[in-house]
Amino acid sequence: MLMPGLRLMWTSYHRCSVCARIYISRKEEPISLEHLKRIGLILLGSSLTAVGLQFFLLPNHLIDGGVTGAAIVGAKLSGLPLGIFLVVLNLPFIFLGYKKFGRNFAVYSIIGIITLAALTFVHVPHGLTDVPILAAVFGGMVVGTGVGIVVRYGGIIDGADTVALLIDRVTVFSVGEAILFINGIIITVAGLVFGWDAAMYSLIAYFVAHKAIDVTVDGLDESRCMWVVSLQVRDLGKVINELIEEPVTYVKESNPDDREPHGVMLAVITRFEEQKIKAAIRKIDPRAYIVVTSAHEVIGKISEGSLYRDVPQVK
After folding, report:
1. What is the mean pLDDT, run by run of 10 residues, along the chain of 315 residues?
2. How far apart are CA 159 and CA 165, in angstroms?
3. Do 262 and 286 fall into the same domain?
4. Hey, CA dihedral for 66, 70, 76, 80, is it positive or negative?
5. DSSP character at residue 311
C-alpha cells in the first residue's frame, strides 16, 4: 500500500499525464490544402461581389436581391456604412447555417461576409458606367459570379435563401415562391427609396445575378440524364455510344417474353448532344419513351473504369 504522500504524488502525476494526452489529442490539425483552396476562392468570390457592387450597382442606385439588397436600403436610409449592415443582417443566418450545415460552413461564411463588408465599407463615388442598363447587366453578372463562387466552395454571403427554407417549412409557400416574395418586398422598398426606374433596373440586375449564380455553381456543361424505355435498348445503346464519350448504362434488358418487355437504359449527356441523340433514337425506334432531366452534378467517368478501379476484392 502506498503511503499518503506517495499516493498524492502518484495521483497528481496520473492526472497531469491524462491532461497532457487530452491536450495533445485536442491539438488542432494543420489546415489542409483543400481548406486553403476553399478559403482563397471564397476570398476571390467576395472580392468579385464587392467589385460588382462598388463599380456598377451602388453608383447607379441599383440593388441586388436578398440580404445584400436590404443592407443597401438600410445604409441609404441610415447613412451608416454598408459593411455594418452586411455583417449585422447576416449574423442570424450564419448561426442557422452553423446549426444545419456545421462549423466549416459557418467559418467560410464569416470569412466571405467580413471580406465583402470590408471592401464595401467605403463607397466608390463613380462607377465604370453611368448607363443604368449596362450597370444592371454587368453588375448583376459580376455579383452573381462572386456569390456563386462562395456558394460553390461552401459558404454564403447572403442569407435570404435560409429565410426561404424556413418559410417553406412553416407555410404553404415553396422555396422559389418564398425567394420571389422576399425579393419582391426588398425591391419595392428600393423603389420607394431610390425611385421606380432604379427598382426596375434592379430587377434586371437580380435576374442576371441569379443566372450567373446558377452557371457558376453548376457549371457551363449542364449535364443531363436521358432515360430511354424501348424494346430495342441494346440497338439504341450501340448508336448512342458512338455519339457520346460515356457509355450508356442498361438498367433493364428488353425481353419479349416478360410481362413488361420493354428495356430501360440511362445515358449521361450534355445539352449540346441532346438533339442529335434524340434524332438517332427516333431513326431506330420512333415509339421509344424518352425522359430528360437535369443532372446537378456528375462525378467520375465510367469510360476510365472509375466504377471498378481501386475496389478491394472480396475473398
Report:
1. 42 44 44 87 95 94 88 92 93 84 87 94 87 95 92 83 64 66 86 91 91 78 86 92 85 86 90 87 94 79 51 47
2. 10
3. yes
4. negative
5. P
Radius of gyration of the chain (CA): 28
Please report, for the domain that includes residue 235, its CATH number: 3.30.70.120
- CA distances in angstroms from 74 to 83, 224, 267, listed in the order given: 11, 42, 50
Q: Could you tell me if 165 and 269 lie in one domain?
A: no
Task: Give the whole-angstrom CA distance, residue 287 versus residue 308.
Answer: 35
Q: Is residue 120 a part of any domain in this protein?
A: yes
Q: How many domains does the chain have?
A: 2
Is the residue at 10 inside a domain?
Answer: no
Domain extent, residue 200, equals 33-218
Return d(Cα 222, Cα 6) in angstroms, integer.
73
Sheet holding 223-230, edge to edge: 249-252, 263-270, 223-230, 289-294
Determine the 3-state secondary structure of 129 from DSSP: coil
Grid cell 476553399 is found at 38
Q: Are residues 101 and 242 in the same domain?
A: no
Q: Are residues 212 and 95 in the same domain?
A: yes
Q: Say whether both 181 and 256 belong to one domain.
A: no
Amino acid occupying residue 289: Y
Alpha-carbon span 92 to 166, nearest angstrom: 13
Neighbours of 62 (CB within 10 A): 29
Phi, psi angle pair for 311, to nearest 5°: -90, 120
3-state secondary structure of 297: coil
pTM over cut 0.85: no
- Do 103 and 56 belong together in one domain? yes
In a shared domain, residues 129 and 175: yes
Query: From the CB of residue 133, how many other CB atoms can be counted at a distance below 10 Å?
Result: 12
- Residue 290 one-letter amino acid: I
